[in-house]
Amino acid sequence: MITSLDHIAIAVPDLQKAITRFSEDLGLNFNGQEKVHSSKTEVAFFPIKGTQIELVHPINHEGPIQHFIEKYGAGLHHLCFQSDNLDEDIKKLRSKGYHFTSEEPSLGAHNTRVIFIHPKCFDGVLVELNEVLAD
Question: Which of 134, 88, 128, 90 has the alpha carbon at shortest distance from 108?
Fold first, then answer.
């Protein structure tokens, strides 16, 4: 079951410039960054009451975020909802006719499994579902 809005992701062409903008200009707390090799991205997080902002940047100008920036420019990339049982949610949504951008979940940032619902299923909005892995 979906339990919360985990984060709002913004595709950025210059990660350090965006980190400065969010931390210094807006005064948000920077919660670190990490590379997510499975999606060829580097991400930075800013927790904000009830959710977080995730800045997403392509590693080596490769991968889906690079293609997104080239096609649409920088900006809102996706919404991510946290699941307490990702496999069950995927099964339920598939039974309702939803399509995903991959067949199986992959590893995401912050020790999670993630899968994306195709934007055609959500009126053009890319939706990510994630589940925190047990330690």
Answer: 128
> Shortest CA distance to 78 belongs to which of 135, 132, 5, 20?
5
**Contact residues for 19 (Cβ-Cβ < 8 A; gap 6+):** 30, 33, 44, 55
Of the candidate CATH numbers 3.40.640.10, 3.40.50.410, 3.40.630.30, 3.10.180.10, the domain formed by 2-132 belongs to: 3.10.180.10
Q: What is the mean pLDDT of each run of 10 residues along the chain (135 residues)?
A: 96 97 96 94 96 97 96 96 97 97 94 96 96 87
The pTM for the full model equals 0.92
Angle at the Cα of 65 (from 59 to 66), degrees rounded to 5? 70
Residue 122, amino acid: F
Q: Which of 52, 57, 34 is nearest to 108 (CA)?
A: 34
